[in-house]
Write a structure and sequence with these properties.
Length: about 280
């Protein structure tokens, strides 16, 4: 009897502990093969989380991670496209939410890489999500020390790659996109690693805003993203950029696979429409 009761108690504990995990979309942990997007840009994340590797002869840039247990999957995907996690020199994020940051501290340690971030995301990265104005008040991922602050328009250079920071705030205060030019087969492509301006459930824009200036931040992001020259784009979630419609596992590399300027424009306008609808609803 005692044994049975203990087992029951243990089961309840396990269920309680598993509950937050069960609420996460399974696409955040489902493995997906690493693949080349275009030029020296590779996608190395799980099924629905964008984790991007930009390779160079002098080491690599890794943008985002997945959840805290995502390091083995990211390592496997990096190796499958012919590179090493240990050669990552610079870590970046598109937004300081745990589904994109939780393995940063671990990968920083493994690779001896530097964490670079925008000022507002740096604060949240360093306190593990505690000061996030929407999801904060508790630690939601392992804090990671930021080595260098990057700002809008800054060019991150590594081994011939020039990656420009485009601050696109709103989703988080320090959300950022990154753009670069890729030469492939005699043609030059404008490539965007774009943080899309989605509004998390419960966030307030105008009346009792989640943080002061959030509505203006989103407006700035839509304006900037609509003005960006974009041939190829990827985003923080595969579903946002049509990853699974554009690419099937095992598909041969073709620089045209992710060329989608109209899709980018349509996605930005879609999120802007949702933003304007929410603004109107709050002011009603
Ligand atoms: Zn987010």
């Amino acid at each position: 009897m005692f044994v049975m009761r203990s087992t029951l108690a243990l089961t309840c504990l396990l269920l309680a502990a598993a509950a937050p995990l069960a609420a996460q979309p399974e696409g955040w942990t489902r493995p997906f093969p690493g693949h080349r997007v275009i030029g020296n840009l590779y996608a190395v994340g799980p099924y629905d989380l964008g984790v991007f590797l930009i390779t160079s002869p002098e080491g690599h840039i890794l943008i985002n991670t997945g959840l805290e247990n995502s390091t083995p999957l990211i390592r496997k995907n990096i190796e499958s496209v012919g590179f090493r996690l240990e050669d990552v020199k610079i870590l970046l994020t598109m937004q300081s939410h745990w589904d994109h940051t939780a393995a940063l501290a671990e990968i920083k340690e493994i690779a001896g890489a530097e964490m670079w971030a925008t000022a507002d995301d740096a604060r949240v990265l360093e306190d593990g999500g505690f000061s996030d104005p929407h999801f904060g008040g508790k630690e939601s991922f392992k804090p990671v020390k930021v080595d260098r602050i990057v700002a809008d328009g800054e060019v991150i250079e590594l081994g011939g790659t020039r990656l420009t920071v485009v601050e696109t705030p709103g989703h988080t205060e320090g959300s950022s996109s990154y753009v670069m030019k890729v030469r492939e087969g005699g043609r030059e492509y404008d490539v965007a690693i774009a943080n899309m301006a989605t509004i998390n459930r419960g966030k307030r824009l105008a009346v009792n805003p989640t943080y002061a200036g959030v509505a203006d931040d989103f407006a700035e992001t839509f304006r900037k993203q609509k003005a960006l020259p974009v041939d190829v784009w990827v985003a923080a979630h595969g579903g946002q950029y049509g990853l699974h419609e554009k690419y099937k596992p095992g598909q041969a590399y073709d620089p045209a696979t992710f060329v989608d300027p109209q899709g980018f424009r349509a996605a930005v306008e879609h999120y802007e429409k949702l933003y304007l609808e929410q603004l109107a609803a709050e002011r009603r």
